[in-house]
Every structure is written in C-alpha cells, then in structure tokens.
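Sanity check

After download, print the first record. It should look like this:
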Amino acid sequence: MRVQGKEENVRTGERRPFHGAVQVSWQTRSGETRVIRAKCIELSDQGARIECENPIDLRTRVYLQAPAYGLMGDASVRYCRRSGIKHMVGLMFSSAAGEAEQGRKRLIRRPPGEENLHAN
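Expected structure tokens:
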C-alpha cells in the first residue's frame, strides 16, 4: 500500500477551514466497496484535506459527501500521511468548482465564520 506523497503546495485556490463530517467511498483494487466516515479539515475550489482512521492508497478515486450539505463529488487521493493515530489525506476534485456537485458549491460559497456549524 502506497500512502505517502509529496507535501509540496501546488494549490492555486484559497484553502478555507471546514470542520465537518464527510463520508468517503471508493472501490478497492479487488472490487470491494469501502465507505468510511472522516472529518474534513480544509476545503478549496480544487480539493480538500480530510482526517480519517484508515489510510487510503495514492491515486485512489474517491467519492465525497457531506451529510449536512449533500454531494461534494469525486476526487483523487494526492497524499496520505499518518498523523498520530489518524491519517491526513489530501484530495483533488475531478471537476472544476463551477461544475461541482451542489454540496461542494454550498460549502465553497458559505460566508466566513460558518466553518464549524455542522462539525461532528
């Protein structure tokens, strides 16, 4: 399992804090569907950083949903590194923000100060 990754900052958009529950799903190489709950830490037009208990392989295509906001879309794992007993996972969305799912659009456009309204 390859989970490390470069930690260089290649973002062009602004990262905003968002501390809320998300559901992450993907299909493993063996065809098994995995679904986990995670905590979203940051969000930008292009991606997100999440914290979860289990590692996710690099380049895995995942589908992200925030229960309080709705569908966020699909993304690719750009890095995964251990942080204490958790894993920090960097995701890059497959579609541009203008073509994003409704949940992601609502999160990106929310007013400053609403970062923790739906934290779980």
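If your output differs, re-run the checksum step. Summary of this record's structure: The first strand starts at residue 16 and ends at 27.
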